[in-house]
Amino acid sequence: MTNMAQHTATHTRKPILVTGATGRQGGTGRAVATVLLERGMPVRALVRTLDERAEALCELGLEIVVGDFGNYRSLVAALDGVESAYFCYPVAAGVAEAAGFFAGAGRERGLKRVVDLSLATTRVDSSSPQGRAQWVAEQIFEWAGFDGIHLRIAAFFMENILVTDGENIRRNGRIANSFGDKALSWISGADVGSMASSLLIDADAVRDRILIAGGVEHLTYAEATAEISATVGVPVRYEELTPDRWREELIAGAKADGGEVNVRGIDHLVAQSIALKSAPALPVTDHVRQITGREPVTFTDFVKQHLPELTPSIHE
After folding, report:
1. Under 8 Å CB-to-CB from 42, ≥6 apart: which residues?
2. Rounded CA gap, 110 and 105, in Å?
3. 187: β partners
């Protein structure tokens, strides 16, 4: 493995710190880092451990620093010489404390601009505990006095299908949840990362403090499932569950994987499925084109990019 601890940037410009570059939630951190590198910017990635994912980032040309949102001194070290940063925390407990530590370390090191990935459900009275905690995180960055954007994504990450449904698709040719026939707005993590990178570089790209970015197309889960079936050429079915049953399946699936059960993330998903039933449809907007100048990734594009992960191993 490359000695990443000794890997340093050779750029004379100040690096942009990217968090979440090895995360699973939409993969936005890695997308931010990749686009910044493509645009010739020096990038520093905060990682928790020096593993294969961190090595892959190092090979792309990133400076790697080891740290943790729960370790204040590691954040102070990571933010040394940094004026702009991307803050990306998973849908899990702890975002408010993480934002507090990050903001404190940023003020100590002279951080000026933060683009933070947030949620459409971010409100003080959100039905989702994650939405309420995310509101607190946004307020912390406001109190800290940073410039930047609260990037609230009013859409579902296409990549979440890989995380929540990938195993079920491959083993059983099935997607199951409690969203039913609600039309959802969809966006790729790559497009979100591309928007965030533009917002980090260009302070004039968006003048508003909060940007509510919708998806690029509307699809119900049944329609998304049909698109997967048509594209991979193997039947995949959609099954609507009650919220309680879906929660049980998500917890059981997480336990079967042998990893830590992210109860906060599961509760957030289930709360969304309930709240959205009676809410207006999440928006479809043109933010990807407007901010990045790129054509957005469609759902069909996404499926084609992930054929092995979305193809059932059985024929029904």
Report:
1. 9, 11, 13, 14, 15, 16, 63
2. 9
3. 157
Model pTM?
0.90
Integer distance in angstroms from the first to the last C-alpha of the chain?
43
- Copy the structure tokens of residue 33: 């880092």
Alpha carbons 202 and 4: distance in angstroms, whole number: 29
The hierarchical CATH code for the domain 4-155+188-214 is: 3.40.50.720
288 touches 294 (CB < 8 A): yes
User: What DSSP state is assigned to residue 313?
Assistant: S
Output the six-digit token pair for 235. Answer: 């039947």
Mean pLDDT of the residues in the chain:
91
- Report how many helices (DSSP H) and strands (DSSP E) the chain contains, helices first: 12, 12
Distance of CA 241 to the CA centre of its chain: 25
Tokens standing for residue 194:
């591309």
3-class SS of residue 15: coil
pLDDT in tens, 172-199: 999 999 999 999 999 999 999 999 999 9
CB 106 within 8 A of CB 78: no
Output the six-digit token pair for 89: 């925390």
| Cα gap 228→239, rounded to integer Å | 14
Place of tokens 């004026």: 83
Q: What backbone torsions phi and psi does residue 154 show, to the nearest 5 degrees?
A: -95, 60
Name the token pair of 166: 């990938």
Q: Which residues contact 279 (CB under 8 A, 6 or more apart)?
A: none
Element (H, E) at 311: none
In this predicted model, what pLDDT tens digit does every residue of 41-55 receive, in sequence order? 999 999 988 888 878
